[in-house]
Each structure stands twice: as structure tokens, then as C-alpha cells.
Amino acid sequence: MSITAPQRDLFEQVAIIDPESGELIDDEIYSPYLADIGDTDLREIYRDLVVVRRLDAEATALQRQGQLGLWAPLAGQEAAQIGSARGLRPSDFVFPSYREHGVAYVRGVDPAVVLRMWRGTTLAGWNPRDVNMMTPAIVIGPHMLFAVGYGMGILRDKTLNSAVDDIVIAYCGDGGTSQGDFSEALGFAASFRTPTVFFVQNNQYAISSPVGIQATVPIVQRAAGFGVHGIRVDGNDVLAVLAVTRHAAERARAGDGPTLIEAVTYRMGPHTTSDDPTRYRDAAELEFWRQRDPIDRLRLVLDRRGLADQEFLASVDETADRYAAEVREACIATPDPDPISLFDNVYATETALLAEERTDFADLHGLDLQGSGE
Ligand SMILES: Cc1ncc(C[n+]2csc(CCOP(=O)(O)OP(=O)(O)O)c2C)c(N)n1
Ligand SMILES: [Mg+2]
Description:
- The protein is an alpha/beta fold and 374 residues long.
- 45% of the residues lie in helices and 9% in strands.
- The strands form two sheets. It has a five-stranded parallel β-sheet with strand order 1-2-3-7-6, with helices on both faces.
- The protein binds thiamine diphosphate and magnesium ion (MG).
């Protein structure tokens, strides 16, 4: 069955939570995708948002205390990440960039493992197959192409087994859309009608460059030129993000091809812990977005429905604090790898040059050549 691609004014952002009243807006196209979301789900989603923000604060503190080399904070983007990740099935595959800690949380990646890359004790992190999520892409762009290739693989699997209906999602930022890889990926995805969702978190900045420098029209408008369906959503409205992701995933599963979702949000913190955003943006702008905080937005819904009683809120805080304490403990306890292990797993079969470099490195530092063998 084909899922109709609704045509909307592409400047308009899909929203579900009324920012004044906390009432749910009845959206003809997208509300049906939330029909199964009851009070328990709303509370669970709220808990996710709070826990992920707490994780982010803890990781930032760990970096300031010298336990991490770097951290890319997600504060402000919780709804975009939790909403979209919750719109997927476990069997779908995720290609993240480097800020998707909230997506990793929903996929069930151990947060202590997430932190290891930022601590510099591993080159990547987890086994992508365990959670159907690739490890972070620091280089901006290529993973969009990988997501198209993965989608082509799904289509091939489908020719062998018609029951296959997985989809693949790739995350990138507003700045990432300026990469050639982004355009190439959209072109290929449209031509081959791959089951790929491109999820752009437009957090208004690429490091210090405001989005207006890279995109003179809304990013979502680029989709149309490639023949890709586009949706612009209020990225701080977790229910709207969930609904549009489910919609895009449903279309992809039905064979209706790729969708580009532009989630309009804001990076509340620095680009990374090495950045000082006060040098390029003013306090008024930050305040404007503080008024649009994604956690407060969902809180309005809970308040309105009488779901945010003291007992519930205390249990959320307790979950978040316990989670952060466990992450901290695991991070600090992570041992440094044997330096020689840097040469492990570079190739399936070690080349002569690499073997020579391994020996030179061991000689230079007086290391045992056997290494950890990890
Ligand atoms: C190919 C490439 N060029 C440049 C960089 C350096 N770089 C790292 S993050 C970044 C900005 C990306 O901004 P955006 O895509 O909006 O994502 P955000 O950081 O806002 O999540 C740049 C230029 C890189 N990692 N890869
Ligand atoms: Mg950005």
C-alpha cells in the first residue's frame, strides 16, 4: 500500500504540542501516528528527555574534570533525538553523526561505551550489529551515502524475502547539508527509491556559522529538487518529531522511497567543550530558545493531564541521578588501552608496512610487541 505524501507549505513546521496550553493539536495527517501514545508513554518519553539531559551534563562535567578529552553536548536537542529514535523499530538501522547520544540511549547503547570514544580509550565504540546503530561519524557527510547504500541492500534483501521491510535513518546537522555527500545521497536515494530517512537537526549553527550562511531557504526545500519527500517539524516538540518520523518510516517501508526531515531546534550549549559560544551569539538569542525548551514543552502536557505529581517527578530525578552516577563511575574506571593495541584491527591481514611501524613504535617506546591483543 502506498502512503500519500502530504504537500504542505514547506516553511510551516509540524507541531503537536500547543506551546501555550500543552493541549495536543489535532493534525489531520500526523495525529493518527500518535494514536497509541497514552499516559504511560508520555511519562516514559519525559523520563527519557530528562535522563539524556542529565547524561549530557555529567559528560560535560567529566570533560571539565579531565576525564574526557572532548564532548559534543546535545542539550536542547533532546526532543529531536528521542522523538526520532522512538519512531524506529529495533531492526531498523541508524547512521548517526557525533552528537546523537540521545539516539544511542534509545537504541540501548551502554553510555559508558559512548563515553569511551570521547575519553580516547577506543577508536569507535560498540558493535553496530548489536544495536543496529553505527558508531559516531566525526567526518561530516559520508554516512549519508552509507545510509543510501544500506537502503539499497535492504531493497536487495527484499527481492529474496518479500517480508523484509526495514528502513535506515541517517542523522546530520544543518552544516552537514552543505557537504557534496548530502546532495549525492539524496540524488541516489531518490533514483533508487531507497527506504532512507534523512534526519537533519537544524540546531541553527555549524560550530560558529549560523545556518543562514549555509542555507538561504529552509533546508527542507532542498528535498523537492531531488524528488525526495520533505517534512519540516518543530524539533523541540517530541510528539511532533515522533509522528513525522513514524510517517517517514511508514512510507519507506511501503516502498514509497526516501524522506528528508528538517527538525528545527537549537544547540543550547557549545559546539563541543572546546568551543565558547558567547563569542558568536548573544544572551537574548539563548533566552529566546530557553523559552522553547523541549523538556518544558512536554511538561506542559503532563501538567495539563495531572501526570506530573511530586512522586513521579522525584522518581524521574532519581532515575537521572542514578544513571549519571553509574556513567561517571564506569567512565572513571575505564582503563587506558595498551598503546601498541593502536596497531590492532587496522586491516584483516596486517601489511608489511604496518608490521614495520608496529615494531618501530614498540622500539621507540620500549613496549612489549605482543600488546593487549584486544
Ligand atoms: C568533512 C568535514 N569537514 C569539516 C569538519 C569539521 N567540523 C566538525 S563539526 C562541524 C560543524 C557541523 O555542523 P552541523 O552539521 O550543523 O552539525 P552540529 O555540530 O551543529 O550538530 C565542522 C565543520 C568535519 N568534521 N568533517
Ligand atoms: Mg548544526
